[in-house]
């Protein structure tokens, strides 16, 4: 018995007891820590290691979520087991950032009746339905995961995949929370330019409805028109049509006017713009300022002023490309109540080339000297309200090819409409590339690290362990 008591009193036993107790304590702490971590929101327990931050929500989304005053339910339309991981992860981020966001799974096979209530029976799997007490909006999977086949058909390269989860979800949340949705009427009938898909989708993402309007068939501009858009007509409007636009502005209306070069006389339209302090001249603007054009002097990189429309672009250090602009100038004397703000301007080194063939890039004796206004915002205070106009002297920035080169051009267009609609900000969240990049490691480097991790490091650990064992044996 005394021998057993001696065993319990040995140094080895005491050390063993201490080690065992310490091990149990560490395990208990680890278990408690894991239980606590499991209760934390996912945005606090996960790190987005994707190259483009696929699951990281931006400041604009956080601001919108922070201002929610009503509960929103996001239904993930998918059968159990078919969930796309990237969609599940970003939905969890939304739910973690706001207690107002509830994420629920809606199985289209189990609950076809509920799906039909949203007129969404044809939605593909991994689509979403965002709903508030006001309205709902569906977001299709094809809008969340975008596939661009242009390079595939042109060069035979792989399609380009992008993830627009944040942009589409945030836009849908903003849509279902907005009390009154703005509407823009686009005037047709005079060879106007059509808006490319990139612009219509950007307007839709900002929850601005659009509708064509044949002005000559109307007695007045519709009462629900928040913005009237004139998109680079090739022929002039009649006096009657201009009269309708003028009356609309006198009642506090909003006009987006985009001009473009045409061989036809545009006296009526340009005369209306002149009433609001802007004169459209003859020729095509060329820029000789060192940092204010690219490739050719007609490809203008104008200077951006600080105004609500342009400030977001300036803050992101983005450029706006405005090719083939007409020379527009602001009148020196403006009537009382009329204010004109320059948005885009050329430098004093610019000139308006009277040579429409654009063969010469030097100022001629008949060419008007700059600077010129390429874009302007006009405000006119009247007894009946505040009229606003945004005028650009070229439509080229808003063509598909130039929108791909400079995405800020699309922001400029949407910001212009949003400013006149009274929106404080626009949803400017770009899709993120899902593409992967490979990292090529030289063979010599591969061999070096193979030796380190496969041979040297294990051998070092074994040697250290053997040394500790020898030292303890000697004690």
UniProtKB/TrEMBL annotation:
Domain ABC-type uncharacterised transport system per the UniProt entry, residue ranges: 182-381
Transmembrane annotation, as ranges: 21-40, 448-470
Protein keywords: Membrane, Transmembrane, Transmembrane helix
InterPro entries xref list: ABC_transp_unknown, Class_I_gatase-like, DUF7088
Organism in which the protein naturally occurs: Cuneatibacter caecimuris
Annotated ranges, domain DUF7088: 51-142
UniProt keyword Membrane, yes or no: yes
Protein name: ABC-type uncharacterized transport system involved in gliding motility auxiliary subunit
Any one Pfam family match given in the protein's UniProt record, by short name: ABC_transp_aux
């Amino acid at each position: 018995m005394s021998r057993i008591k001696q065993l319990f009193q040995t140094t080895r036993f005491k050390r063993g007891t201490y080690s065992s107790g310490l091990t149990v304590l560490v395990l208990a702490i680890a278990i408690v820590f894991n239980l606590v971590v499991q209760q934390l929101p996912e945005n606090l327990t996960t790190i987005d290691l994707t190259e483009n931050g696929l699951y990281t929500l931006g400041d604009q989304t956080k601001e919108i979520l922070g201002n929610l005053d009503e509960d929103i339910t996001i239904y993930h339309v998918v059968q159990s087991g078919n969930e796309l991981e990237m969609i599940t992860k970003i939905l969890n981020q939304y739910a973690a950032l706001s207690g107002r966001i509830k994420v629920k799974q809606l199985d289209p096979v189990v609950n076809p009746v509920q799906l039909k209530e949203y007129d969404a029976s044809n939605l593909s799997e991994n689509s979403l339905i965002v709903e508030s007490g006001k309205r709902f909006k569906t977001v299709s999977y094809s809008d969340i995961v975008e596939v661009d086949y242009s390079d595939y058909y042109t060069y035979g390269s792989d399609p380009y995949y992008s993830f627009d989860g944040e942009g589409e979800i945030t836009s849908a949340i903003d849509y279902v929370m907005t009390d009154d949705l703005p509407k823009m009427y686009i005037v047709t009938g005079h060879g106007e330019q059509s808006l490319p898909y990139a612009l219509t989708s950007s307007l839709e993402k900002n929850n601005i409805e659009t509708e064509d309007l044949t002005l000559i068939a109307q007695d007045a501009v519709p009462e629900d028109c928040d913005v009237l858009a004139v998109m680079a007509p090739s022929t002039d409007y009649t006096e009657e049509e201009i009269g309708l636009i003028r009356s609309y502005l006198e009642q506090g209306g909003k006009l987006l006017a985009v001009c473009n070069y045409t061989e036809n006389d545009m006296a009526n339209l340009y005369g209306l713009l002149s009433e609001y302090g802007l004169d459209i001249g003859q020729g095509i603007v060329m820029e000789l300022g060192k940092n204010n054009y690219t490739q050719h002097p007609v490809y203008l990189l104008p200077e951006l002023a600080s105004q609500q429309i342009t400030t977001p672009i300036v803050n992101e250090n983005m450029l706006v490309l405005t090719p083939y602009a007409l020379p527009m100038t602001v009148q020196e004397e403006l009537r009382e109540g009329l204010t004109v703000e320059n948005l885009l301007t050329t430098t004093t080194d610019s000139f308006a080339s009277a040579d429409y063939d654009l063969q010469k890039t030097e100022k001629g004796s008949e060419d008007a000297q700059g600077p010129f206004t390429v874009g302007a915002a006009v405000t006119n205070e009247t007894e009946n309200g505040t009229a606003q106009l945004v005028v650009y002297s070229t439509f080229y920035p808003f063509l598909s090819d130039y929108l791909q080169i400079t995405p800020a051009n699309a922001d400029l267009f949407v910001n212009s409409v949003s400013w006149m609609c009274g929106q404080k900000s626009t949803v400017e969240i770009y899709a993120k590339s899902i593409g992967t990049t490979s990292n090529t490691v030289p063979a010599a480097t591969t061999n070096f690290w193979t030796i380190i991790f496969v041979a040297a490091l294990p051998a070092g650990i074994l040697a250290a362990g053997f040394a500790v064992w020898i030292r303890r044996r000697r004690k």
